[in-house]
Amino acid sequence: RIQENHSLLGVLTALNIHRQVGQLTYKAVRSDREIALSCRCGVHTGSIFAGNIGSHQRMKYGLLGDGVNLTARLKGLNSRYNSRTLVSQAVHDIFAERKRSRHVLLRPVDLVAVKGKTQPTIVYESILAIGQPKVSAAYLSHTEGFRLYQKQCFAEAYTAFAEASGVLEALGSYDVPSRMLMDRCKAYIANPPAADWDGVERMTKKSFEDAQTEAPGAADSRAKRPTVSFVDGLCAIPTESDVCGSDTDASKSVGAESCVTLQQGDGAPEAVSSL
Question: What is the pTM of this model?
Fold first, then answer.
């Protein structure tokens, strides 16, 4: 049976992974210095093939499909925006349709065509912000700025992005997504884009640790600056009930790296999943 809430559980899983990893430290062998650990996640929903692949001599369980590839690209894109969890347009649309984002905040960070794809998709950053009204307001300002940016209202968009980054940076988090889009707005105000501008950032790499901001004249907004995760410091692992406000008996924790529900069919089993 397919879990109707698998997209929500996939996002909650990613947020819980960050919370658990944030409690770990790594002690460097030579300096005996403790180093905080972090990771990055991508969440997408779609139809994939899942099952045992290979021959009788050598077989393994695997996942195949465009959905798996896009999820991997989303994970890699985090390093470009200094984010921890990026979700696809498909996941965002499910949240918007079912209004399941009372505490899970999603904001658009870019319109991209990932490496190997020509069809663009809006990617969204996801965080958990329980009791963080200023963060919620900043995400709303950023979302409005992104809408204006796509309409080529660059001056108005710059103001909205500046408001969002100002709030987040006052809370201690250097806001790379808003800063990056502010740089683009400044560049396009000085040199308006061509008439066929579609706002798509076409990626040529899978990893972006050394990538520069690609808009003309834009500064590198991904400078090595401290960042604060608003997931850190929560007293309890969030459940579906915490996020959705549901009265149903929700799962008390989500611990898997991905939520996959198999749907048996002819040939290879098809899975509807959030990875």
Answer: 0.73
